[in-house]
Amino acid sequence: MYSMSQNGPDAYLRTKVMTAKPAELRLMLIDGAIRFTEQAKRGYETKDFETAYNGTTRAQAILLELVASLRHDIAPELCKNVAAVYTFMYTTLVKGSMEKNLAAFDDVLRILRYERETWLLCMDALSRENHSASALQEAPRVVPTPSADQAGAEARPRLAIQG
Fold it and tell me: What is the CATH number of the domain that holds 55?
């Protein structure tokens, strides 16, 4: 029976996954899909079909996980389009494996690398937004100010933002 050791690379990976933010987890999945697709391609290049099979099936499993993690309730149209890209990559890996077509693996790698770059840009933008929001010392104060066209006791206060 296989038991997970508390030390070594498995423990490090488990800790990294358990402490990662959702955006970081998605990046880890994309990185894994790239790594396993490269492994599959190398396996076919060297005619090591066991390595090719393992890489292909792992990359496909990650693509399925990426599809399953989409939040259709938040952005249905975007999720539909992204799911179509993941499905395309999945089926391209299937066809590439059946035909031992290295160009198919190159196509998938090109898309995955592009997505990785895009995701890094999104993570950077989110980080900058979060940093800007946390830089606010305090929320702006709302104080009443008299209207310029009204005078005396009849003047009703208007709200102005100070900050």
Answer: 1.20.120.340
